[in-house]
Write a structure and sequence with these properties.
The structure is a homodimer. The first copy, chain A, is of the alpha+beta class. Chain A folds into two domains: 143 residues, Jelly Rolls (Sandwich), CATH 2.60.120.10; 81 residues, Winged helix-like DNA-binding domain superfamily/Winged helix DNA-binding domain (Arc Repressor Mutant, subunit A), CATH 1.10.10.10. In chain A, 40% of the residues lie in helices and 22% in strands. Chain A contains eight helices and eleven strands. The first copy, chain A, has a four-stranded antiparallel β-sheet with strand order 1-8-3-6. Chain A has a four-stranded antiparallel β-sheet with strand order 2-7-4-5. In chain A, strands 9-11-10 form a three-stranded antiparallel β-sheet. Chains A and B meet through strand 5 and helix 4 of A and strand 5 and helix 4 of B. Chain A binds a DNA duplex through helix 7. Chains A, B: Keywords: DNA-binding, Transcription, Transcription regulation. Chains A, B: One of its GO terms (cellular component) is cytosol. Chains A, B: Pfam families: cNMP_binding (PF00027), HTH_Crp_2 (PF13545). Chains A, B: This is Crp/Fnr family transcriptional regulator. Chains A, B: InterPro entries: cNMP-bd_dom, cNMP-bd_dom_sf, Env_Response_Regulators, HTH_CRP, RmlC-like_jellyroll, Tscrpt_reg_HTH_Crp-type_CS, WH-like_DNA-bd_sf, WH_DNA-bd_sf.
Amino acid sequence: MVFGKSCNQCSVRETALCGVLADAALAPMAAHGTQRSLARGETLIRAGDPARLCANIQRGLMKISHINPAGHEVIVGLLWPGDFVGTPFLDGGPATHDVVALSAVSLCVFPQTTIERTMADHPAMERQLLSRTLAELGQVRRSLSRLARATALARVAGFIAETAQRRPAAAEPHVIELPLSRGEMADLLGLTIETVSRQMTRLKTAGVIGLPGGRQVMIQDPDALAEAADELM
Amino acid sequence: MVFGKSCNQCSVRETALCGVLADAALAPMAAHGTQRSLARGETLIRAGDPARLCANIQRGLMKISHINPAGHEVIVGLLWPGDFVGTPFLDGGPATHDVVALSAVSLCVFPQTTIERTMADHPAMERQLLSRTLAELGQVRRSLSRLARATALARVAGFIAETAQRRPAAAEPHVIELPLSRGEMADLLGLTIETVSRQMTRLKTAGVIGLPGGRQVMIQDPDALAEAADELM
DNA sequence: CGTATATTTGACTGAAATCAACGCAGGTGG
DNA sequence: CCACCTGCGTTGATTTCAGTCAAATATACG
């Protein structure tokens, strides 16, 4: 709370003191950005929108998604703190995806009109952006590989395992809070709500995980979970 | 032939005159690279390899793939002329994918030991690399969206349609040569050889495409092909 | 407490995988 | 020249995993 409050009060000059940017190399960048907060469910970028922006996520989780011709939502990626949203270039045509907050989010927004100049002034920033984009490409390729061949069980187990890695040690040692609803998991993993639910139950029945309630998952057998995730991928 | 021969004779100084780099911004970059040719089937990068490189494809087609735990090959992307292979950074750990030539390939290779300096000297080059990486990210996300929800028919139709766009007007107006075997298409689309074959036959029977033989495809009804590709995606 | 929403569970269906032949070049060697 | 082999593609029969349709809890929320 204190954290969020202090951010909302930030002037542009003080931005660098707000949320932790991913890398020291980004510190000078922060001085050129403005602070922005989003509530859960708020849309930052809408597909087809001509207005573009580039921002760095300081706190919270976002989804990149779009609605396919059949009217079904497909989530093509999640964005965690430190990740960049949008593109730094003006020439790229309209946005192809929606970007929506899945939780309360704090952003450091860089207006596209000045970002090219900012990058020119701070080569390390451009380097960092390139580096992160390459990392994200690797991530998406891993998702691709999973969607191409993995069974429903492996997709669900893999998602839980990866989420656990991202959220190290909450209150309880092996209990994590999933950031997505069953429906959102289905949209991300290319499955249906029912199938996601069934695989969760299957993992619970096998003693691999526990489901204390809500979106919480207790990981009882990490090795078995990893094995289930790898079973075809 | 003349083209290929002249490239092989290039000294480093003359490299810029060889294959067409994607953008005028890359011209100065070419002077810092060396020419290399690969035969169909040759491996440029092997997964797990610590040695990294960065290269720009001038001619030919490559695949980015890896073998999953079940022993099945998954193709996570194709690389066309103008695309970059590998990464410009030394810190990224071992390669995660194989990169293999699907046809005769000409490359402009940049040694990683000097590329950071080259990028520092030519900011436009780094900008171009970032821009292309972002574009590739968009491509992969489209594939992801397709793999998440599209039917076998839509995947195959989409692949044919996209290939046709990439290879504008060969000899015959609406005849294209697929760059992949049925098995490679299956690995790319997350299907089996049999299913790919069946969908091709289905499109042929419906009068959408013709199959003159070999890997050739005659596109008889582009609108119907596009419609089949969009049917769920 | 009651209503709305999310999740689980069950029965059935269907699309693609699997298993299994078959056809068709293109090359090799008798 | 022809028989044989090999790799690639097509076709058919059957199985299976996940989707669809439907209903029963469970949880969140006013």
